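Revision sheet: structure tokens.
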Amino acid sequence: MRANAVFIQRVFRHARVALFGLGLGISATAHGEWLKREADIMGTSCNVELWADDVAKGNADIERVFTEMRRIDTQMSVYKPTSEISRVNAEAADHPVKISKELYDLFATSIEYSKLTRGTFDITYASVGYLYDYRQHVRPNEAAIVAALPGIDYRHLRLLPNNTVKFDRKGVRVDLGGIGKGYAVDRGIAVLEAVGVKHAMVNAGGDTRIIGDRFGRPWIVGIRHPDDKNKIVLRMPLTDAAMSTSGDYERYFDEGGVRYHHILDPKTGKSPHKVRSVTIIGPNATRTDALTKSVFVMGAEEGIALINTITDVDAVAVGPDGKVYYSQGLAPPPSE
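Predicted:
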């Protein structure tokens, strides 16, 4: 695998990508300062980096992003019993539940991705997923999976008028873990754009979105090696784009030579092993976040074939043997 660059064959329709040498110094054309801060939110490390002409305002803008992310976590985390989504999981099988328009719209978006990906993205995966505890190395046995598996089907989530939702059967649970961080990143970018920030990067775990450039240079975003967080498989120069990576190394445990990780195949309720990681590049992080899970479940060949039918995204997948697969909009460097 080449670790220094990826060659871009075309310009994304909604994400401008530029080619520059890596490791070059960055200079600004105006007085000011690059600011960077990190916070633990949504169970992951969240980072904001931006250019600020006024340092005090820049720090306040970063805090606005973190405040927005905390708000989303409070509303949409299944680990918070008072959240909206926890109330949906507790009540929606018994009666319609009125929710905020924001959560309703994100449910609708999730269903759109389920349809687009032929069900390989499905927020009802949680109907089995809640039985796993990766920190405690807990997994359901086959009987428990078989019993819970009928709950996985995005069509069980019914969107009713007036921002109301209902489950079609008992045992259905939803979890926005496959799209929520990307959505939070997009909301963070929206907060920055609303206060006039022109050059920034917002990251939550494996989801990143960028606005602007670094004053004549692109942002360089790396895809980590699945087995070594200190190694980079390749680096991607991006401007005004989003990028999400999902891998089997994020939340997992190994047992009996098998890796049990947090990405589940909705058809089986088990962790797929056709790839080690998937990266999607596109116009926004909600989109790239959802599509990484789909390609991961499908595997490199089927997943890349799907991505090749979607005009505003591209993909890179790393197979179990280390082979790197690219969508048609990307090509590896020519062999030496």
